[in-house]
Write a structure and sequence with these properties.
Keywords: 2Fe-2S, Iron, Iron-sulfur, Metal-binding, Oxidoreductase. The protein is α+β, with helices and mostly antiparallel strands. The chain folds into 2 domains: 2-74, Ubiquitin-like (UB roll), CATH 3.10.20.30; 80-150, [2Fe-2S]-binding domain (DNA polymerase, domain 1). It contains 6 helices and 5 strands. A 5-stranded mixed β-sheet has the order 2-1-5-3-4, sandwiched between helices. The chain is globular, with a radius of gyration of 15 Å. The mean pLDDT is 94.
């Protein structure tokens, strides 16, 4: 049995230590905001926070999360920071098909929590681990710039 904290609550999983966190989140806990885009840690669609650090859940085995704190997009969306990011993504048209959006928002939060007033180059670098096939990234960069401006003081 593997015990860990998930979105602020203590949980247990009977899955073997070799199972991917991504699959356990989707199948056992029904948290479908994490997506399997590549299965190799290259696309960012499965991004979660582990102890406050952005990680790819598709390459994390359950054995590595024993006793750790995991926050998914479902947990993050309960925060004021999420509301600011969501509003900025909406206003700039940064959401197209939506597949990459949870991972992009998590990467945006990771950046803004470190750099509350980022420059465009910093945003592009921070989002470089997330792939989007629809937007061309410019609208997503604009969303992060807008969120930094409108959320001044919360990061």
């Amino acid at each position: 049995m593997i015990e860990f904290e998930l979105n602020g609550k203590k949980v247990k999983s009977e899955r073997p230590a070799s199972h991917r966190l991504l699959d356990v989140l989707r199948e056992e806990f029904r948290l479908t905001g994490v997506k399997c885009g590549c299965g190799e840690g290259e696309c960012g669609a499965c991004s979660v926070f582990m102890n406050g650090e952005l990680v790819n859940s598709c390459i994390l085995s359950m054995g590595r999360i024993r006793g750790q704190s995991i926050i998914t997009i479902e947990g993050f969306r309960e925060t004021k920071r999420f509301a600011v990011l969501q509003d900025a993504y909406d206003k700039t048209g940064a959401v197209q098909c939506g597949f990459c959006t949870p991972g992009m928002i998590m990467a945006s939060e990771a950046l803004l929590s470190r750099v509350p007033d980022p420059q465009e180059e910093e945003i592009r670098d921070a989002l470089s681990g997330n792939l989007c096939r629809c937007t061309g990234y410019n609208m997503i960069v604009d969303a992060v710039l807008l969120a930094a401006k409108e959320g001044k003081g919360i990061w």
